[in-house]
Amino acid sequence: MFDTKVALIIRDDLLPWQRLNVAAFLASGIAAGAPDALGEPYRDAAGLDYGRMLGQPMLVFQAGRDGLAQAARVARERGLLTVPYVAGMFRTGNDADNRACFLAEDPDAPDWVGIGLLGPKKGVEKAIKGLSLHP
Question: What is residue 109's DSSP assignment?
Answer without folding.
Answer: S
